[in-house]
Design a protein that fits this description.
This protein is α/β, with parallel strands linked by helices. It contains 23 helices and 8 strands. Helix 3 crosses helix 6.
Amino acid sequence: MEPASKYDVQTSMRTVVATTSRHVRADDLATCVACGLCLNDCPTYRLLGEEADSPRGRLQLIRALVDSDGPVPAGLAVHLDRCLVCRACETACPSGVPFGRIMEGAREELSERRPARGVAAWLRRYGLGTVASPRRLGIAARVTDLYARSPLAAAARLAPRALAWASSLAPRREGPPFRPTERADADVLLFAGCIMREAFGDTERATVAVLEADGRRVSAPVEQVCCGALHAHAGDGDGARRLARLNIDAFAGSEAPIVVNAAGCGAHLKAYGEVLRGDAAWAARAAAFASRVRDASEVVRPRRAGTGRPIRVVYQDACHLAHGQKVRDQPRALLRGIEGVTLVEIADAERCCGSAGIYNLTQPDIARELQRQKVACILAAHPDVVVSANPGCMLQIQAGLRAAGAAVPVVHLMRFLADPRAFG
């Protein structure tokens, strides 16, 4: 694992009266009293043991960043980049520090003051541009699927470590891509996302099927685009705000709930009011949009179908569902309601698996160790199936289980609810 930087967090241990940042609010930073109750819940602090890799340490570095207009120290950027933005610290914090909002603002500040250059800048621009372009993303998904099913993917296990790791995360498509269709009499709208609609088509169709089994009329606006979460996490605030405006327009003309089946997308969509808070022309519409967003587990009703035989199910908490949206009980209630399911809790159930958007590609050493720890906890529970509600978690855990020699299937909650017998 890459050694921790020795950037001295004590250099920024001072009270900041005001900030010069357009992206980080002074009142947000002032909510942290450095009590340290977040330390044990921070995956990177537990792993690296560096104060600068803890939530309160990072907040001190952010204070130093926004209170100065000088050059950004390289070590400071390293520690902020190592943050998973899993928001476990928000759950642990008694003061209500909005850490996710602060970190996204700090990364936008960093992006403006210390922009990436050369190949790194091109990769960032191309990657974010691809997820925001349905045509380009469709091509990328087809190529990735062909690779994941080819002998090359198996052979990549013998490749250099970095290549083998990236290859292990390549997704196979779940059936054909999902294509949004609209209906005039809808009482619920589906946010299909970008990667979900291209690589997880069966999960999208299962979500529609489960909602329709409840008597809901589902429409998926065809003009919707990527939610912008990856852009926000990467510090591309302008890109995130542009996509937010497009989605608000795409879902206009209705007050129906907007259902999301990807935890990361849902957390970001629910934050659109904050994303466009400083835009007078869009702030009210953004807040209204955000108030309509629901995770699928908050909307669907318990299933009557059973598994056909007793099975043990581990539910993997996605960070942006548990910590970002505070949705923990609803998925478990849905699983417990299925005849034949024994829901088995695991140790450190809310600890991040290391996926975190593209974190497992940008910080592979940390992500690999968090994956190993998560898979060890899962295997200790002896499950027949692992259920999650986020595509990144599913890919990360699938890869970890394969590396451990385990054949336990990993499936999205909506697919499991749609046909539990298929996994029983």
